[in-house]
Amino acid sequence: MDLAQADWVLISPEAPHRKVYSLDLPLLRRPADYQVLERQLGLDERSLYRLTLNRWATHLQAPEKGAHVVSSASPEQTIGRPLLSRSAVRRIGISLRDIKLCPACLEEEPCYDRLFWRLRLVILCPPHSLLLIDRCPLCHEPIPGLRPVSEKCPYCQRGDYRQIPHALIPSTSLLYQGQLLLLNLLTSEGTTNAKCPSIFAGSPILSVEPWQYFALSERFENLMWLRSSKNPVVQSLKKLAWTDDHVSSESPLIRESAMHMILSHYLLASWPENILTLIDRVAKLTEGQQVGGRMLENVWQTDQVVQHIWSSSSSGNTPFALLLQMFEAFFIWGTFSGFPTSGGERQGHEYLIALLPPAWSESCHSS
Fold first, then answer.
1. Does pTM top 0.90 for this prediction?
2. Whose CB has fewer CB within 10 Å in the chain, the N or C terminal residue?
3. SS3 of 320, please?
C-alpha cells in the first residue's frame, strides 16, 4: 500500500480514539475495527471484508471451519462472515506483516499488489510470467505490506524493488501451470489463460474442491519435510522434475515453495503416467538394498498399481479420497529407509504393499 502516512487511516478521529493494528488488517474480524475503517475509508462492511484474506476462508479450510472463526473471541466480538482460523493461517503459511511483489506490476500505472501474494505457495505473477520477490535487493530485509513508497525499501531507503534481475518463467513449465491451477482454484482473478491447464487434463485434481486442494498441499509439505538422502520419494521426484536452474531467485523461501509446487504438480500432471514413472523410479532406487542377508529385487510391481489407479477411478472413490491415499502412501514410503524381512521370507514389494492404505493394499494383493 502506497501511503505517505499509512497509520493515520487506522485511528478513529473521534473520541474515544480507537486504533486498528496493522497486523490485524489481513484478517480483520472485529466489528469495532470495521466501523473505524468504514468511517475512514467510506467503505461498507462487505467491501472491507473482500479486502481481507477472510474472503477465501471457505476455499482455504474445510467447510466446518470456513463457516466461523476458531478463536477465544466470543461471537459478539467477530463479524458474522466466514473467517480464517489462526491454525489455518499457520498451516497454509500466510504472512500478516510482509508481502511478496511482482517487479513488473510496480512499473504499471497505477502500481499494485495482490492480496493472495501473502500465501506462501503463491510465488508467480502469471500475466508477467515473473517470479515474485520477497526482499530488498540491497539490504535483503522483507517487504512490509504497509510502506510509505510502493517501490522503495523503507529500511535502507535505497533499495528499489523494481530493479531486481529477473527471468521469464515459461508458460509451459510445471511451475507456471501449477500456479495457474492454484490461482484458478483460489480465485478466477489470478488466471489469464485457459481455465484448466491442459497438462492436468484427466487428472482427479480438476475435480476437487479448493479447500481439498490446499489440504493435499499440506500433506505433500509433510513429505517434503522428510527431505534427506534416505527419502526415496523426494530423491526420485527431484530426479524426474527438478533442476537448480528452474528458479532464478536468491530467496530461500521462494526456491523452497517453487520446489514444492513443481514436485507436487508433477504427480498431478499427465495422469497417471507421472505417478507410474515415480513408482518405477522408487523401485529402481531401492533395488539392491542389503536386507537380512539377501539382495532385494523387483521391489515394486507396477502393474498392480496401474490396476489400482484405474479401479479406484471407477469404484466410486472421490477424487480427493484417491489423491489423499496416494499422498499418504508416498509419505509412508518417504519415511522408509530399509525393507525389513519377516522370518527372512517377506519380499520388498510385499512390504511396500503392506504399508499402503487398506484400499490400496487389498487391491494389490488381489491382483
1. no
2. C
3. helix
